[in-house]
Structures are given as C-alpha cells and as structure tokens.
Design goal:
This protein is an alpha+beta fold and 470 residues long. The chain is 26% helix and 24% strand. It is built from 13 helices and 19 strands. The strands form 5 sheets. The protein has an 8-stranded mixed beta sheet with strand order 6-9-10-19-18-17-14-12, with helices on both faces. Strands 1-2-3-5-4 form a 5-stranded mixed β-barrel. Strand 17 (359-364) and strand 18 (367-374) form a beta hairpin. The longest helix has 23 residues, at 135-157. It is elongated, with a radius of gyration of 28 Å. It binds aspartic acid. Residues 196, 198, 333, 371-373, 416-418 line the site of aspartic acid (ASP).
C-alpha cells in the first residue's frame, strides 16, 4: 500500500499526516467522538474521530471490531493527562481524516480480546486464522521465527548448510508407524512420509557435505497422547569427523546463545550443562528426562541436562515397538554406534543388555528436547544391530542396501542430533503445550478442524490409485 507506515512508527511522525492500515481492535463510541484502537503486525494505536471530521466520524460510527481499514490521519501528541507510560503509542493518537473500509468482518466467532486460554480448543482450532490474531499467538509465532532465524544464522557461521530432504520417502524403521502415500504411477506401491531425515542426512555425510542441518518436518502415525502431534518440526543436524563431545558442545553453545540473546529474562541454572548417565537418571529420578530445576515455581529458570550412556537394546513391547514385541529392539536409533568398549560385543552379539550406545539426549525442565548419537559407519556393525533385533543379514542387505553400499563407498565417521523444536519453543514461551507454538496444529485426536481433514476422497481418486476401501 502506497505511503503506508507501520503503527510502531507513529511516534516518529508527530504532526504529520500519514496512512496506516490494520484491524479494528476495541471501539468506544462516545456520541460526539469515537475512539477506536487499530492494530497491525507491529502494534496498536488509539485513533480518534472528531465531530469536525464529518466523513471520518460517520465511518467511525459504522466500523466494528476486526474490520480491516485504511486510515489517513494526523499524528498528535496526547494531552499530558492522557499519556500512558510503558505502552506502545501511549503518548500519541491518530486523528482520523479519512477512513476507508478494506474489508468488513462478521462478529468474530471467538473472543480475540483475551489470551484465549479460557476458550475451548475446538473453537480455537476451527477458527485458527482468527485465533492467531490474538497478541499471545502473534508473539509465539513471531518469536518462533526469530529463533529459527537465529539458528540458521548461527549454523551458517559454523559452516553448516541447510539441505532439504524428501517428503515422499521410504519406510525407515525409526520405531513409530509410518504415514503412507499411495503411488498412482506405480500402483500397489507406496511412499512413506519421513519420521525423521535420519537416513538421508547420513547419506549426505557419504556425499561429502560434512555439515548439514534442516528445519525438518517429521511425520509419525502414533496414537496421540498428551503433547504429541502427527507432524512436528525438528532442528535436524549431522556432522562428519566428529566425536560426541563436539556435537554436544556445539548444541550446548547454540542453546545458550538462543536463551541469552532472545530470552534475556530467562536464567540457565547451570553452565556447562550437567551430564548424567541413563543409569543415574533412572536411579535418582526414576526417568530419563529429569527435571533438575532447583525452583520449579520460577517460570524463567531453565535447567538443561545431558543424559548419556543409554543401553543400545531393550526388549520390545507394545509401546516402544509393537511390531516386534518380545524381541530385542533399539532404545533410540538403530543407526547409532555402540560405545568403543562394546564394539566387539556388538559384532559378536554378546552381552546384549549391557551394550551402551553413543546416544546423548538433551533435556530441559523435565522434557526431552533433543537427542542424537555418533553413528555406525561400518556395514558389519549395522548388520549386527539388525541381526540382534532378529533381522537376518540377507534381509538387511535387501532393505538397507543403499545405506550399506554407502558405508562401503567411503562414508566418514559422523554423528548428529535432532531437537524437538516445537517443544523447545513451548518451554521458551512458557506455554502449556506445543499446539500454542505451531501455527496450524492438529487436535489431540490428530484432526485439522479448520479444513476438516482427514477427509474422504472421491471414487475417481481412489480408482486412479487402484485402491478399494474395505
Ligand atoms: N533421527 C533421530 C530422531 O528423530 C535423531 C538423531 O539421532 O539425529 O530422534
């Protein structure tokens, strides 16, 4: 819009005629005069329509909350007695000269004047585009962008490059159930949506990329308890020629800088982050994501902690790997390397319950916010992992031939990590669940109430895909 200025810049234009555009917030009709607040993405300002501005006041009497307006007006300093300290534009107001209606709005389906916690979530989700207008949601989504940008800049300086990996991918034995996409061109065959870019990022190490990262969408078709989403975002990372400590230090420094630069009101309880073994965590705290905060009432206290020395294998049950109940399964990641002292045990399938992995998890205030490992880059070791899990060598050679071939073609030692980015944002923004920091989340039942999905597809679409519903 020509000549439009942002509401945050009104104060630099005192005495001038300017143009702003935005949404009507609250409106107070005082008969002779009409006051209303108008907001754009940068903030709010008070507008006043005076009796002397005949056209403007006629319009101002008509407008309603959430209408979209273009306003030409004169920026005036408020009389001293009306000045509000500590509020954006608390010392100025806009005298409306001309009001143009850009779009009217029906009465909002949900109240936008509060922080929204009191509104039923079904309503907030159904009208998510309205819900996102409220100040709290604007802040969450804008801060999320700031953190993403900070991460990208930081990693760029550390010589990482961001590489996109496919969304139409293949079933990858990451542990959860895959979302499946039928192929039309190759009927009866299916893609899987990635549970994580794990194999692609390792293949990028085989490709000589050395330092990869991605803000990656991950999809897992799990039963949704509490705070899970069928799709979520990971900061995904992989590095070549690194030891565990290098990956951990880089991530620790990045987390510290995010907090110090973008959330200076928060206090990190302990730097360097404490490291505890899985065994100690279980014995002392009864879980592997201990909440180490000394004061749990302080919402600005952040207690990070690394958990290391995880067992590589555990017995599968219906929670961790329903497909393999009773067999050995990996605790974290089948692509992890065993710790050096257990390397021979792994190759010889000895001492299985005691083999420790090079896995490291990062926890924050009792939540797991990330995890990663140094990987296997030797074909024999990867085959041994699957063998222990009851998958014969021939089958692994068939299923993971590209990984094994890559490992036989000059793949450097490598390791990485992935952060559950939504969860980190939830904690940084003091929100009770990750849906508050995702623009368009699914409900607890995995539904998109706004668009009404999942939804049926037409018979024609099914036919094209060669699919019959039973
Ligand atoms: N791919 C792993 C995960 O999604 C993380 C990693 O080891 O890099 O949990």
């Amino acid at each position: 819009m020509k000549n439009r200025i942002y509401i945050k810049d009104l104060k630099n234009n005192i005495g001038k005629e300017i143009v702003i555009a935005g949404w009507v917030d609250v409106r107070r009709d005082q008969g002779k005069m009409v006051f209303f607040d108008i907001r754009d993405m940068t903030g709010k300002a008070q507008c006043i329509a005076l009796p002397s501005r005949i056209e403007a006041i006629e319009m101002a009497k008509e407008i309603r909350p959430e209408w979209v307006l273009k306003i030409t007006g004169i920026v005036n300093k408020r009389p001293d007695k009306n000045i509000k300290d500590d509020v954006l534009n608390g010392d100025v107001e806009l005298e409306a000269v001309n009001i143009e209606i850009l779009n009217k709005a029906e009465t909002s389906a949900i109240d936008l004047s509060t922080d929204g916690y009191e509104i039923g979530e079904e309503h907030r989700m159904k009208y998510r585009y309205l819900d996102l207008r409220r100040g709290r949601m604007q802040k969450n989504i804008r801060n999320r962008h700031k953190v993403v940008k900070f991460i990208r800049d930081y990693l760029d300086k550390e010589n990482f490059i961001e590489i996109e990996t496919p969304i139409l991918s293949k079933s990858t034995a990451e542990g959860a159930r895959d979302f499946i996409v039928p192929s039309r061109l190759d009927k009866g065959k299916f893609f899987a949506l990635p549970q994580a870019p794990q194999q692609h990022k390792q293949l990028l190490m085989a490709s000589g990329m050395e330092k990869y990262f991605q803000m990656a969408k991950c999809m897992r078709d799990e039963d949704l308890r509490g705070d899970r989403q069928p799709e979520f975002t990971q900061l995904d990372m992989e590095m070549s020629f690194v030891e565990k400590e290098e990956v951990m230090n880089l991530n620790e420094n990045l987390l510290i800088e995010i907090v110090q630069k973008l959330y200076p009101e928060k206090e990190i309880q302990e730097i360097p982050f404490p490291k505890i073994s899985h065994k100690e965590a279980m014995e002392k705290y009864g879980n592997d994501r201990p909440d180490l905060r000394k004061d749990k009432n302080n919402k600005n206290l952040l207690a990070f902690c690394w958990v290391i020395d995880f067992p590589f294998f555990e017995k599968a049950n219906k929670d961790n790997n329903p497909q393999a109940e009773g067999e050995w399964t990996f605790t974290h990641n089948p692509f992890s390397a065993a710790q050096a002292k257990f390397h021979d045990d792994l190759l010889n399938k000895r001492n299985i319950p005691n083999i420790l992995t090079n896995q490291y998890d990062i926890t924050l205030n009792g939540f797991e916010i990330g995890g990663g490992s140094i990987r296997n880059h030797e074909p024999e070791a990867l085959l041994a992992v699957y063998d222990i899990m009851g998958v014969k060598k021939e089958e692994t050679e068939k299923n993971l031939f590209y990984m094994l071939e890559a490992f036989r073609s000059g793949t450097p030692p490598h390791g990485g990590i992935a952060w559950g980015f939504d969860r980190l944002m939830m904690i940084l923004e003091n929100e009770p669940n990750i849906r508050e920091v995702i623009a368009f989340p699914k409900t607890g039942e995995g539904k998109d109430l706004m668009m009404g999905s999942p939804s049926e597809i037409s018979d024609k679409q099914l036919k094209e895909l060669g699919i019959k519903l039973i």
